[in-house]
Amino acid sequence: MTQPYTATTQSHNPSMLSRKFGQEIVNYFSGSPLNRVSFLRSNTAFLRAALPRSKFLLLRDLEPLAASKTTLAWVGYETVRALVGNPFNAEEEEFLREYDSRVEIPTLVFLGVNEGDEDRGEERFEFEGEGEKYAGRPCFALDVTGEGRSLKEECGKVQEEAVKGAEGREFRKVRLDLGLAPPDAAILAQARSLLDWNNRNQFCAACGARTVSINAGTKRVCPPTDKAFQKNLQDPPFERPPCISRKGIHNIAFPRTDPTVIMAIVNSIGDKILLGRQRRWPKDFYSTLAGFCEPAESVEDAVRRETWEESGVRVGRVVIHSTQPWPYPANLMMGAIGEAFPDGEGIVLKHDPELEDAQWVELGQVRSALEGNTGTPDSKAEGAVEGQLRLPPSTAIAHQLLLAVVNGFHLAKP
Per its Swiss-Prot or TrEMBL entry, what cofactor is needed (predicted)? Predict the structure, then answer.
């Protein structure tokens, strides 16, 4: 029988939760090898010391530098020194006081510490603070797109240096990269999501002024002053108009993650699964239904609403199966298994025009497709038969939900 795509979960074997619910499914784009140490992102002493000892993942137009089709490529500090310097030499308050909107700053994001990284035989970086000692290789992501005039030349130099003399290195020009090894895919998901968020939020949502990245790339603020409007160097920094984003608790300064439900819906007898096809997909490609959660809506309610809106099928009991980060741009896919009401299995596509077709498909047909006819909508598995049901690849949570159902996830345990 086809085994689920999963990371190693040996340490979970003795747990009572594993005995009751089974081993945890770690979906693609999750299970990062990095310790994010998120509480150190505002610790300038840590960041200042870590930066020269770090390795850097470069992204150009959100496309990562890769060493091969399955692995990312990293560069050392010397490669990026001229571009980034050390922005953590100043404390946050001083950094914001010196803000000048005319000066372009490359987006640099701290990803975490790889505690198991021993490459190049270098001495492990260690930092003692916040009650503990942290050791390993610090990792950053750096945007080298260089869209602004002042950064374009320097970013170009970094790009050239990064690939020079390294056979096979390239910025991967793929829209949806599911070929990376799982640990690298998880790192890319984090890096891509954060850089994309920084790119999309360069202006304050409250007052429209330019924002600046702090907390090692994980927060953007609307600075209270701007030297760009200072008449004389001797004058105090120009004060911007008051902005609500600088006061109290708010959510406009932090990266957002959009909660999304994706669900395998079984019929009341348990021998069929509801599959749908979007208009832009090939005629033989189907998947599970999915949709965004709305404000003040539980995951279970979102599953029921989205299923009914897209297919007309009414769902009763919903069980969470697993989750998957999806960095296109920043979704969290919350996978569920749902059961249709006996009198609610009729398919109606009139509510929401997203689907061109929806069908109840027998488990045996789904199982056969999972075993040899999977891929993304624009790619096929080797040996796939034209005209037969095609399903998402094992790296997609939709595949894992379907696999769970055909393996009996929804059936009563003896």
Answer: Mg(2+); Zn(2+)
